[in-house]
Write a structure and sequence with these properties.
heterotrimer, A mainly alpha (about 350), B mainly alpha (about 425), C alpha/beta (about 260), B: about 425 residues, mainly alpha, two-stranded antiparallel ribbon, C: about 260 residues, alpha/beta, four-stranded antiparallel sheet, 10 helices, 10 strands, globular
């Protein structure tokens, strides 16, 4: 039971991290019509910047500085490169961000190397946020780490929920609230909301569109970088971090392109799909056995049937993507087509 | 009745298209004599790979250049073609199937066709950016599955095979690389011709129409999605052939053939070669092999250079190298190419300075990054550099800065001159049209 | 006389806004009908509904007696209805000739074939040449559609529309943005190419309307308030009110002594 709860929380926290990424991506896509293929690369850069900055000014200033620096980087890219590709259409814009993802990956490997860097968790975020102790049929929660003697007692099961993950959820929820407030309460937010559905109209209303584009792109990258800082201390900071990219794209297609609410629901859904099955070591063979069907190595489709749910976890989001395409092509809450 | 009196119907002078025979004949001859011109083992390996890459890039361009569909996961079809071919090869080796090795790439083609039909049914429901994202997702799906099904995908070690097997026709075993090269050359020629022919058919033309205006296509009686679906399937077929030839060439197939890296490579090089013309992807395929085999040996930063070149192409020459060639041919046809010669030279020289500076910096960083022996010197293009001291860095920075300034100056002058030439040509075209 | 196009109490909502509020119309085969009305009345929406770009929220649309409500645009086109667009909707990177040929292919039965060459499709090529001649763009045969002048693009737009030989032709503001001389030439072109066919056209230019139409349908706020001969429509008080406002309409009626 405690394991289930921890898994659930892990899934939700992964989902919230995905939301941090997909929200920035959706904002950029909605306002500018361009899908930032390099979004996960900015995520990675955020982590690496924070790693280096932490060694200079400490973690907490780095948490703020890294997204700002990445925002400047993103704005600079928008101004020099993306703007030029803009006049050729949406496909060249996508292509140039595709090229950028290669370049960022190589430059990161150039500067920081191909191995993972030791981005240490700051002291305040070390250790578990809380521990679930299952003992004698009852479940109790202890803030922080439960005492070692308690966990080593026979019959006691301790499950820890890392502080870094809790911090990640906190930042993500903060981001969610801030985004919501900004979109619904401020003038900038109104403009962005309008452009979610009618970007041309916003343009003809006299807003300095090139500057707004630069701002939006930079902000989207800043959100990705913030996710990167948090992700960097929770997970490993390595060049492979940008592999989260395809999953984020799957999330926004599932949620419906151009919809923030859809991005949120899609993120949580995919986060759960990726994490919850990891503990299930059963495959379809076991399920078949439960209904009295014996499946052996000679049966048809045996290689498929013996895949456990835990092994299949990485492809579940993509399977959901395919199913969504067949049954509901515009996504969960999709309003605008690409 | 009266229609026959119109001057444009009825007898028309259609000259025999000599140009067509020259081009295709030249292509065939080139394929035939290439291994005789470049005789080394490395050259033969590269030529074989080029033949395969040309088929793959042309197949990819059916979607990208002709259909306006950007696919991020197209290696799935060539990869699955490779896997099915090598499994079939092993069946032939085991004596369970009597199929000549030369026909095995067709097995790959059919596999590519099958999977393209299967996945294409789902992916072609959307267009534009969502389509691209879905192909990305499917590519990741298949790649992840490759780790889950070791029976088919062979796990970490992949699946190996031996192409020297089965029936031997006229003593051809396909053991020596040169024999396999000629098999690849035949497939390459036939596939290229077939894909070119496709552009001259109703489906090919409607695919172009779908690229230009998918909505209007619906209003002239065509189901846009069906046009895309059939084209997707045809593209998958040729991707499968390329995959099958690859399986025979390397005699081993590992999971990376369906990976994102390979898909990205197809996209990158097809675009670099030029997606807007038919022959652009042929250039792209050749460049792909040159980059992967030669450039990667020359410098560790080759992916970085590639990414930067790609970005510059998107910004300044979205039609790729093919369009640059065509533009210059047009300028030459109007007799204006010679005067641009000096500008090109200035551009090239300043680019060289720029690249030297940038390359020196990048290579020095790599040296510091990778070299753990504590050595002090390295050579860059014959120049000894000492990355651990400041002098080399300052020097490289100066060269780089100078290169940027010079290149920018040369570029602006070139662009001004070029635009002037283009205006003159446009004026001349208008004048001729008005005649 | 057969009814070529019929609308029965068609409604269309976009979100909560009702654009078409019960439009009914019956166009006879071979008739030329102009649809007029103030801006925002829903004329283009009506065309979009008939041609299948949108599906009506309620009501029925029939083509030659056959219900086409909710069918996809390509299905409706195959049943014999073609439409043009107010903003030229061409195949930008294809030449004029190729644009027209594409529009001809389905009607000539070429479907999705990739085993025959276009160069050998003599019937399609001849028909394309005829069309080229009809819309007077022979000299611009190999020019890319995106490089044509505005009037040439409008001509090509009409060419693509009639290429497939559809019995029912919908033209959405064909003369929009044209000068006086271009307009009169265009009207002549439209008259020539729609001989024997049923024509529905949305128009603002009253000269064109009165010169071209057998009957006029007046669309106001999503409803057809009048559908009659030009003279009858001109004198119709409801139409006058819609265009001129009630005060002026009464003055008009009083002044013209109708």
């Amino acid at each position: 039971m405690d394991q289930l709860l921890i898994n659930l929380l892990n899934g939700v926290s992964s989902g919230l991290l995905l939301f941090m990424l997909s929200s920035g991506l959706t904002l950029i896509f909605s306002m500018m019509g361009v899908l930032n293929f390099a979004h996960a690369s900015f995520y990675m850069v955020g982590a690496y910047f924070a790693y280096t900055l932490t060694n200079i000014v400490g973690f907490w200033p780095a948490l703020v500085l890294s997204p700002i620096l990445v925002a400047l980087l993103g704005a600079g890219f928008e101004r020099t490169a993306l703007r030029r590709a803009h006049k050729f259409g949406h496909v060249p814009e996508l292509l140039i961000t595709f090229g950028l993802s290669y370049v960022i990956l190589e430059v990161v490997q150039l500067i920081w190397g191909r191995a993972a860097v030791p981005f240490a968790t700051p002291a305040a975020l070390d250790g578990p946020a809380f521990t679930l102790v299952q003992q004698g049929g009852g479940l109790s929660v202890r803030l922080g780490a439960a005492p070692a003697e308690l966990c080593s007692t026979a019959g006691a099961l301790c499950s820890r929920f890392p502080m870094t993950r809790a911090f990640m959820m906190f930042i993500a929820l903060l981001m969610l609230v801030a985004l919501w407030l900004m979109l619904t309460r401020t003038r900038v937010g109104l403009v962005i909301q309008a452009s979610l559905t009618h970007p041309e109209m916003v343009e003809s209303l006299g807003h300095n569109v090139p500057r707004v584009f630069m701002l939006v792109f930079g902000s989207g990258c800043a959100l990705a970088a913030l996710a990167g800082v948090v992700g960097g201390i929770t997970f490993v900071t390595e060049p492979n971090m940008s592999a989260v990219g395809p999953i984020v794209f799957a999330v926004i297609v599932i949620g419906g392109m151009g919809s923030l609410a859809g991005a949120f629901i899609g993120s949580i859904l995919v986060g759960l799909l990726q994490t919850m099955p990891l503990t299930v070591d059963k495959s379809l063979i076991d399920a078949a056995r439960n209904i009295g069907w014996a499946v052996g190595p000679d049966s048809a489709f045996y290689p498929f049937l013996k895949i456990t749910l835990a092994q299949a976890a990485p492809i579940l989001p993509y399977l959901l993507l395919v199913l969504m395409l067949i049954f509901r092509p515009k996504g969960l809450m999709g309003t605008r087509e690409g | 009745m009266s229609a026959r009196a119109e001057p444009f119907v009825g007898l028309r002078f259609t000259p025999h298209n000599v140009g067509r025979w020259v081009v295709w004949g030249g292509f065939a001859i080139l394929l035939l004599i290439a291994p005789l011109l470049f005789r080394s083992g490395l050259a033969h390996t590269m030529l074989s790979q080029m033949g395969i890459a040309v088929i793959a890039c042309l197949a990819y361009n059916i979607l990208l250049g002709q259909g306006g569909m950007l696919s991020f996961g197209h290696a799935v079809y060539s990869g699955l073609g490779s896997y099915l071919t090598i499994h079939t090869l092993n069946l032939v080796s085991a004596g369970q199937l009597a199929l000549p090795v030369s026909l095995l790439p067709l097995v790959g083609g059919l596999a590519g066709l099958f999977f393209a039909a299967l996945f294409g049914y789902v992916t072609t429901r959307k267009a534009g950016t969502p389509f691209a994202m879905i192909t990305l997702g499917l590519g990741e799906l298949v790649w992840s599955m490759s780790l889950m099904l070791p029976e088919f995908f062979g796990g970490e070690g992949g699946i190996s095979g031996n192409r020297v097997t089965g029936s031997r026709f006229a003593g051809i075993t396909f053991g020596p690389q040169i024999q396999l090269y000629y098999l690849i050359a035949v497939y390459c020629f036939v596939s290229t011709a077939a894909m070119f022919a496709l552009t001259r058919t109703p489906l090919g033309r409607m695919l172009n129409a779908v690229r230009d205006n998918p909505e209007r296509v619906e209003f002239i009686g065509y189901d846009t999605q069906h046009v895309r679906f059939v084209s997707f399937t045809i593209s998958g077929f040729f991707m499968g052939i390329a995959g099958g030839l690859g399986a025979l060439n390397f005699e081993i197939v590992t999971a990376e053939v369906v990976g994102a890296g390979r898909s990205g490579g197809y996209l990158l090089f097809t675009f670099l070669g030029g997606a807007t013309t038919f022959f652009g992807p042929i250039i792209g395929g050749v460049l792909l092999v040159l980059a992967v085999v030669l450039l990667s040996e020359l410098t560790k930063a080759w992916l970085l250079y590639l990414g930067l070149i790609f970005m510059f192409m998107v910004m300044y020459a979205p039609g790729g190298l093919a369009s640059l060639i065509l533009m210059n041919l047009r300028v030459a046809a109007y007799g204006r190419l010679r005067e641009l010669g000096w500008r090109y030279a200035a551009l090239a020289a300043s680019a060289l300075v720029l690249l030297s500076g940038a390359g020196a910096v990048i290579e020095m960083v790599y040296f510091l990054q990778v070299d753990v022996t504590g050595g002090d010197t390295m050579r860059f293009a014959g120049v000894p550099l000492a990355p651990r001291g400041a002098a080399s860095w300052v020097g490289a920075a100066v060269v780089l800065a100078a290169g940027i300034a010079l290149f920018e100056a040369a570029r602006r002058r070139f662009v001004r001159h070029w635009n002037g030439v283009q205006e003159d040509i446009e004026r001349e075209l208008r004048r001729r049209a008005g005649l | 006389m057969t009814i070529a196009v019929e609308l029965r109490d068609v409604h269309k909502n976009f979100g909560r806004t009702e654009i078409i509020r019960g439009a009914s119309l019956a166009v006879k085969a071979g008739e030329r009908v102009a649809i007029i009305g103030p801006n925002g009345a829903g004329k283009s929406t009506l065309f979009n509904l008939i041609s299948g770009r949108f599906a009506p929220t309620r009501g029925e649309i029939l083509l030659g007696g056959r219900p086409i409500t909710g069918l996809a645009p390509y299905q409706i086109n195959r049943l014999g209805l073609a439409r043009s667009f107010q903003v030229s909707n061409l195949f930008t990177r294809l030449s004029v000739f190729e644009n027209l040929r594409c529009a001809v292919l389905w009607a000539m039965g070429y479907r999705y074939s990739f085993w025959r060459f276009l160069a050998d499709a003599h019937d399609a090529n001849e028909r394309t040449e005829q069309l080229l001649h009809m819309i007077k763009l022979e000299r611009r045969r190999d020019v890319l559609a995106t490089n044509l002048t505005y009037a040439e693009q409008r001509a090509l737009e009409i060419g693509i529309t009639i290429a497939g030989g559809a019995e029912v032709v919908l033209l959405d503001e064909p003369t929009a943005g044209m000068s006086r001389s271009e307009t009169s030439r265009f009207v002549q072109l439209i008259r020539e190419v729609t001989v024997g066919r049923t024509l529905l056209t949305v128009e603002h230019d009253m000269g064109v309307v009165f010169g071209l139409a057998d009957r006029i349908a007046v669309l106001v706020y999503g409803e057809v308030i009048a559908f009659d001969t030009p003279e009858a429509v001109r004198a119709n008080p409801k139409v006058q009110e819609a265009y001129l406002g009630s005060v002026l309409a009464e003055q008009q009626a009083a002044g013209s002594g109708v």
